[in-house]
Amino acid sequence: MTNNIKKILTLSLFKPLTQSMKTKIHSSTEIKDLPFPVAFVDKRFEIKQYSDVFHDYFDFKVTDTLPKYLQGLIGELPKSFLALKKRKSSQKIPLSEFISYVSRKGELRWHKLTLYECKSGKGYYLYFEDVTKKKIAFDLSLQAEHTAKIGSWEVDLVNNQIYWSDMTKEIHEVSEDFVPDLEGGINFYKKGEHRDRIVELVSNAIENGVSFDEEFIIVTAKGNEKWVRSICSVEMVNGKATRIFGVFQDIDKAKSESLKYQVLTDRMRVAVQSSNIGIWDYDIVNNVLVWDDNMYELYQVKKENFSGEVEAWESTIHPDDREKSLKAVQEAVEGKKEFNTEFRIKTADGSVRYIHGLGKVFRNQKGEAIRMVGANTDVSRIKKADSRLRQLLNTTEKQNQSLLNFAHIVSHNLRSNSSNLSMLTGMLLENTEPKKQQRFLEMIRLSSERLDETVVQLNEVIKIQTDHNLNYQWVPVKQTLTKVLESINAHIEEIDPKINIQIPDELKVYGVKAYIGSIFLNLLTNSLKYRKQEMKLQIDIESKENEENTVISFKDNGRGIDLKRHGDKLFGMYKTFHGNKDAKGVGLFISKNQMDTMNAEIEVESEVDKGAAFHLYFSNKKKN
Amino acid sequence: MKAKKVFLVDDDFIFREAAEVLIKSSGLTEEVHHFENGLEAYDTLIPLADSPNQLPDIMLLDINMPVMNGWELLEELKRAQSVLRDEVQIHILTSSIAPEDLNLSKEYEFINGYITKPLTKADLDKLAQGLS
Predict the structure, then answer these.
(1) 4-aspartylphosphate modification sites (chain B) (predicted)?
(2) Do B96 and A412 touch (CB under 8 A)?
(3) C-alpha–C-alpha distance, residues B61 and B57, integer Å
(4) What is the DSSP string of B70-102?
């Protein structure tokens, strides 16, 4: 309480007893007539006289008898009054005390009680002032000051006096009895830009009367750095500043939060920019679509060319993905599904990008969709990597299949020949008949030759699988085909097929020249081998080109292959399908391996007795 | 016991010729019929279902053959008249030592044996014993 009273006095919130009041009290013979609550008490504080308003002031009826002593009216006497009572000496200076008491109506009231000794020295005049409302307002302002951490300060430039409120001291982390001066106050500002700035502002305020409101860092008495807001007003008299004053607020927490938020925002911005994420905001009600800078970058659209309507976005979507994408938006708006989809866009330069779109729908109180906010990410690289991964998996799968075929060769072909040799040598040893022995020897020779042939073929397959130094180049198709046809000219002349070649002279495919020649040779000899005897053989060789591939096709009108039955093992090793004596089941296996090695594809279409068509797909992009 | 006749189904003519000599010299039978693939054997067997006494006692069946392999023939026999399965002892005779082939053969209840090449006299003696 003492502190509060001090503050009240210091800040001069309460008016002191005016001179006219004092004159009235001292000159009046009839205290009861005075229009304010005044009482005369003797030195024992027995109430001798009081003004008429006293009854009302203390909630007594006019007919009530007041307590005999002052303490009966206000409870305990203030300490200074008790001391005066004991001392019984003269009190020349007026005494002021703040007292609180519970009124007869049960209300807590605050009074300022001022004591003046009467000239005769026989007693005292007591002046009562109800300061309850002021006290409440002051407490509230103190509380507000404390909550908002706002202190006040004042520099009296005339008397060179500086005042800091308790909160200002608390913010500076100095003790309550700290006595500030202007230079010391400025030295609390952090050295460098903050101190330089406050010096500049204070000088400008004093010299030119310019007020300010800025944020600074101070270093408190305990060495802590704090963000503060300093507001300054200037009082001018005759064009000269007489007083600068203002408030001082601790904004460290808010500022730190704001700075943290700023840091997070900056980080987010960097993250968003570096990860190619574009942010969009769609006002559904007004059909206004707002993009951030990354979105323009992603879509390769100039800001000035973007109309800001959802239709502008629609127009960028790849035609094949447009319906799907709009459906995804619609379903999100209807609340059926989250907006989480992938689509392609066509940028201004014609390139295609894969976009992953995510979004959230915001609704009003009626549940109506009013806004969608989301992000777009360019996932083209991931898509490509994914495609490459799938290609690698595919290659691995093919290699596994090759290994299985390899195992099959070891298990079946090598073993069948070696077991023949084993059987025949045993029979040769047991049988002494020369004619039979001769036949067994002949069969042993045949088996040995077949074993050798198998090993050669095996070697060829292994060579394809393991040769990493292949010479990849753009191979001229027609030139290669012509050479192959020349190499089997005798065979062709014998069978005399009709061969139609529809391939542009300049067409080239990327691959290994030797492999491509070998594949052409294999497909041509297959057509010759599996022709229908009753019909003239016709072979059509043609090419087609699209954005991604060049396709070379070999079609014939031969015996065809039952794909329902043999489709899954068509390119397997030692798989034959026609029962031909000279069919070894190696050619297509090797061709398939060669195509796989070149990252190319081979496909077949066929119907029994109608012919077969083999399609060779070469990528138009160079081998990685 | 001697077999009336044996069907030998294998695409390797060297093996068939050698096996025939071995079969005959072992005394298993004097009558060996050759088939180059499953389809040839099937085409011969099916009509014999109506004349069971003309069926072979034993059929030695290779697995890996063109046109119709051993498994495909077994599938056809599964669907054919039971007499073909009951009256003919079917033995797989293959150069495959892959466990999956052996396991697959066990799925056909009517198969009587699984022989890996080379075919030996001991194998043929066992076949003869199986006839009794």
Answers:
(1) 62
(2) yes
(3) 13
(4) HHHHHHHHHHS-HHHHHHSEEEEEES---HHHH
Q: Quick one: A328 exposed, middle or buried, by C-beta within 10 A (0-12, 13-18, 19+)?
A: buried
pLDDT of residue A4: 36
Q: Tell me the mean pLDDT in the region A472-488.
A: 92
User: A386-466, what's its fold?
Assistant: Helix Hairpins (1.10.287)
- Kindly report each contact of residues A346-353 with a partner whose C-beta sits within 8 Å and lies 24 or more positions away, as own/partner: A346/A316, A346/A317, A346/A318, A347/A299, A347/A300, A347/A301, A347/A316, A348/A300, A348/A301, A349/A300, A351/A300, A352/A318, A352/A380, A353/A298, A353/A378, A353/A380
Question: What pTM did the predictor assign?
Answer: 0.46
pLDDT of A276 > 80? The answer is: no
pLDDT tens by residue, A336-365: 999 999 999 988 788 899 999 999 999 998
Would you state the structure tokens that stand for residue A154, as one six-digit string?
A: 């004042």
In whole angstroms, what is the distance from residue A499 CA to residue A544 CA? Answer: 18
CB B78 within 8 A of CB B108: yes
CB contact under 8 A, B14 and A419: no
Burial B108-127 (b: 16+ CB within 10 A, else e): beebebbbbbbbbbebbeeb
- The domain limits of chain B are 6-131
Q: How far is CA B71 from CA A18, A571, B39, B106, in A?
A: 126, 19, 11, 12
Coil, helix or strand at residue A17? coil
- Report the percent of chain A where pLDDT is more than 90: 34
Taking 90 as the threshold, does the pLDDT of residue B41 lie above it?
yes
State the smallest CA–CA distance between residue B53 and chain A in angstroms. 30
pLDDT of A16 above 90: no
Domains A2-137 and A472-619 share a fold: no
- ipTM (interface pTM): 0.89
Give one DSSP letter per residue of A307-375, joined into a string. -SSHHHHHTTB-HHHHHHHHHHHHHHHTTSS-EEEEEEEE-TTS-EEEEEEEEEEEE-TT--EEEEEEE
Write out pLDDT tens, residues A47-59. 988 888 888 888 8
- Distance between CA atoms of A207 and A209, rounded to whole angstroms? 6
Mutate: best of B117, B123, B124, partner A, most A CBs <10 A: B117
Indicate the CATH number for domain B6-131. Answer: 3.40.50.2300
> Following DSSP, what letter does each residue of A120-152 receive, concatenated?
TSSEEEEEEEE-HHHHHHHHHHHHHHHHHTEEE
* Bond preceding residue A497 cis, omega within 30 of 0: no
B12: nearest CA partner in chain A: A416
Q: Is B129 left (phi over 0), alpha (psi -120 to 50) or beta?
A: alpha
Chain A residues contacting B via beta carbons under 8 Å: 407-408, 411-413, 415-416, 419-420, 422-424, 426-427, 431, 436, 440, 443, 446-447, 450, 574-579, 583, 585
Cα(A94)–Cα(A98) distance, rounded to whole angstroms? 13
Q: Are the CB atoms for A419 and A585 separated by under 8 Å? A: no
Query: Which residue carries 């090793």 as its tokens?
Result: A573
The one-letter amino acid at A400: N
Q: What residues of B are in contact with residue A424 (Cβ under 8 Å)?
A: 14, 18
CATH H superfamily, domain A149-256:
PAS domain (3.30.450.20)
The answer for residues whose C-beta is within 8 angstroms of residue A421's C-beta and 6 or more apart is A444, A447, A448, A451
